[in-house]
Amino acid sequence: MSLITRRSLLENAAKGGLAVGAGGLIAACGGSSSGTSSAATSGTSTAAAGTPKPGGSLHAGLTGGSSSDTCDPNTIVNNTDYCRAANLYEGLVWTNAEAQMYYRLAEEMTPNKDATVWTIRLRQGVTFHNGKDVTADDLIFSINRVLNPKAPGEAANSLHGIIASGMKKLDSRTITVPFSKPYSTFPESLANNITVYVLPEGFDPKTAIGTGPFKLQSFTPGQQTILTKNENYWNSPLPYLDQVIMTDYADETSQVNALLSSSVDVVNLLSQTTIGTVTGSGKKVVISDGGGWNPFTMRVDQAPFNDVRVRQAFRLAVDREKMLQTVFGGHGTIGNDIFAIWAPEYDHSIPQRQYDPEQAKSLLKAAGHDSLSLTLVTGDIAQGVINMAQVYAQQAAPAGINAKLDQVTVTDFYGPNYLKWVFAQDYWYYSPYFPQVNQATLPGSPFNETHFNNAKYINLYNQALATLDVNMRTEIAHEMQMIDYNEGGYIIPFFPAVIDGYLPNVNGILQSKTGSSFNNWDFEHIWKS
Amino acid sequence: MSVAAETPLPAPGPGATRRSARAWSRRHPVWSMVVVRVALGLLTIFAVSIVIFLATQALPGNAAYAVLGHTATPQRLQALEAQLHLNRSLTSQYGSWIGGVLQGNFGTSLANGEKVSSLIGPRLENSAVLVIGAGIVGTLFAGILGLIAAARRDKLFDHIASVTALTITALPEFVVAIALVIVFSVNVFHILPAVSAIPPGTSPLSDVNALILPIATLSLVIAPYIFRMVRGAMIEALESDYVEMAELKGISRFRVLLVHALPNSLPPVIQVVGLNLLYLAGGIVVVEYVFNYPGIGAALVDAVSNRDIPTIQFIVLILAAFYVFVNITTDVIALLASPRRRATR
Lengths: 529, 345
Description:
The complex is a heterodimer of chains A (529) and B (345). Chain A is α+β, with helices and mostly antiparallel strands and 529 residues long. Chain A is built from 17 helices and 22 strands. A seven-stranded mixed beta sheet of chain A has the order 8-9-10-1-11-20-12, with helices on both faces. Chain A has a four-stranded antiparallel beta sheet with strand order 4-5-7-6, covered by helices on one side. In chain A, a hairpin with a 5-residue loop joins strand 4 and strand 5 (117-122). In chain A, helix 9 (308-316) packs antiparallel against helix 11, helix 10 (320-328) runs antiparallel to helix 12 (385-396) and helix 15 packs antiparallel against helix 16. The longest helix of chain A has 18 residues, at 470-487. Chain B is mainly α. Helix content of chain B is 76%, strand content 0%. In chain B, helix 2 packs across helix 3, helix 3 packs antiparallel against helix 14 and helix 7 crosses helix 10. Classes of the chains: A alpha+beta (529), B mainly alpha (345). At the A-B interface, strand 10, helix 7 and helix 13 of A face helix 4, helix 5, helix 9 and helix 13 of B.
C-alpha cells in the first residue's frame, strides 16, 4: 500500500511538490491562505502568519443545520453535523487539503495478499475524552455499531462484504477484518466524512465522547454547539483554540451581516456574489478548488435517457465555462462528466467535452427526437444548484432541448422520489474514484441516482478490488472512466469552488480540495492573533 | 372580527337553568361574552389542530425522509420509520397525540426526540419578547405621533408624519430590517449587533442591545397603521359636540385632548393594536430570519421542512390560542372603554 502519511505529505508540500490551487485562485482571492500553521499547502504565506498562538474562542456562523441535527456520527447529514463529527471524533484515515488520504487513528492498515483480510493497527497513546485508552475492542465496537441492522450507519456501504463475526483482536490495538471478497480500496473508502469513527464501547451520542481535538460542551440542534479544547489530544500542540462556538444560520444574508459586524469569526459556504461585499469591508475569503460536484442526473434506464445518444447530446448541450462563470463567478474547475477530479487515478488525458449544440441536435435526431421536452427537477439542495438548472435550460435550448424546471423544496427533493427522478440534480462531496463508484454507479450502490448498470464496468470494478498494485488499479480506473465519459448518466459541468469568509485575525485556514468548508472542518489548525 | 360577540349565548340546559343563565348574562354582559367567546375559542383551537394534522399529511414524504435527507437508503428509512412510529394509521397517530395534549403532554419532536414543550418553550419566550416589545414600543410611538398629528391637523408636522407613515407601509419588513442593519451595524455606524442569535439557555432580555434592531423593525412595520387610526379617531373626536362644548367651557387644549377626546377614540384604536399584535405573531418569521433570532417563526419553518408533526402542531396551537386570546381581550377592552356599547347588551 502506498498510503501517504501526513508527515510525508507535509514534507513534500514544503518542498513545493504539492503547490495548492489550480490556476491563479490564490491571486484571485487576495490573501486567502494567510496563515498556515502546518508548513502545508501553498508555501507562499507562512511568513505572514507567524507562530500559532494558543488560546481564544472561535465563533463560527454556519448554514445547513436544522432541528434534526445530531452528534451521532452514524447519522450525520448536513454541514453542521459533519463539522461536529470531524471535531469530536476521528476515523482511521482522513483526507488532507490536497485531497490525499493519510492515517489518522490508524498507525497502519495492511491487506493480506488477495486483499480479503485487512489488519488494522491503531495509533499508540490515543485516549478518549473521558481519559480511557483507545483499544482494539473499541474499534470492533465502532465497526459493529455502523453495521447494526436495526439502525445501520451511513458508512455501512463502505464496509460492504465485511464478515463482522470474523473480526479478531490480535493485541490491545490490532485487529483483523475479513471480507467475503477482495477489497483493495478499503482504506480509501473510509477516508471521508461518512466513515467508521472510532468510538468508546457503550458510546452514547448525548455525551459524544470521541478522540477528536475538541470535546462537546453543549449542543442545541439547529441553534448552537459549543466545543472545548481536548487538552489530552494525541496530536499536540493541536488544537490551538480553547473553544469553538458554532451558531446556526438559516440564511446567507444574516450570516454575512454577522461576519461584517464581527459577531462571528468565520462563515461557511458563501455565494460568489458576496465575495465583493466581504472583502470590500476588510474581511477575508478563502476560495477553495473543491472536489465536490453538483451533477445533473439522467436515469439511464428510462426514456429518453435509455438511449446513450440522448445522454451524449445532453452532455454536449452545456457550456461549462459559461455556466461556471455565471453561477460561481468562474471559481472552480471545469468538469468532464467524470467524478473524483483530485483522485490520483483520475484520467486527465480524456479530451475535454465542449459545448456543441449542433452535434447535440444531430445526436437527438439520430435517436429519433426532432426536439425534446422534459422536466428538470431542481431545488435549493446546495449552493448554486438552482442557478445551474436555469442556465442549463437556456444553454440546451439551441440543441432542441426544452427543459422545464420543476423547483421543489429540499425536503421534497430528498423525499420519496429521491433516486427516482428521471432528470434532476444532486450534490456530492469529494471522494476518491473507487469509493465514489461504490456509492453511486453500481447496481447495488445506495445512491445510484442514474440507475447505471453496465456489465463491463462492474467487471472492471471487481477486478480493481482484487488488485493491490496501485498502478494496475489506476489503469483499470482509466478504463472505467472512459465508460463514465461515453455512457454515464451524470453531467458534471464543473467542480465548484467552496467559498468561506473569515475575519483578518483568524489564521490557519487552508485552501482545500476536499469540497467541504474549512479544509473539511479542520478547526484544530485554526488560531487567532 | 367580532361575529361571536353578537351571537346569543347557546342554551346551556332546560328550564330553570336556562332562565337563570339568561338573567346572569343580562346582569353581566361582559362576563357572559367572555364565557361564550372562550368556549368558541377552544372549539376553534380543536378544529385548527385537526386541519393542521391533515395538512401535514398532505405534504410529500415524512419525518424519516426529511431527517435522513440526502442519505436516505431503504434500510435506513425503514429503521427510522419504525422507530418514529410513522407506520401507524392516521387516526391512531392523531388520537395518541390529542390524548397526550389533554394530559398536558405535547409529545416529542420527530426530528431529535426532545420533548416539544422544552424544545419550543425557550423560543416561545424569545418570540414573546419581540412581539410584546414591538407591540408596546410601536403603539406608544405611533400613538403619540398620532395624537400630535391630530392636534396639529393639516399643519406641517401632520403632513410629514402622514406621508412618512404611508411610505413605510409600502416597505416590506426585510427591507426595513436590512436598511436598519446597514445603517446601525454594518456600513454607516457600528453601534448595534447585526444579528441577534440569543444563545440557548439565556434570556433575550440579558442582551438588550441585541433586541433593539429587531424590535425597531417590527415597531416601524406596525406603527403606520396605529398612527393613522389614532389620528383619524382623534380627529373625529375633536370634531364632536362634546369636545366643542369642553372648549367653549374654556378647558385647556391639553386636557381636552387627553381627557375628553382620547378615551372616546380608544375602541377602534384598541382593535387595530390587537390586529397588529396578531400580525406580529405571524409576521415575525421574516425578522427572525434576517436577525437569526431563535424564535418560533424560524422553528415552525424548520419543523415543516423536517415534517416534525408534533412540533408543527404545538406551535400552531400556541399561535391559534394567541389569536383567540387577543381577539377576546381586545373585544372586552373595547367594550369596557365604550359606555354606549356596554349598555346595549
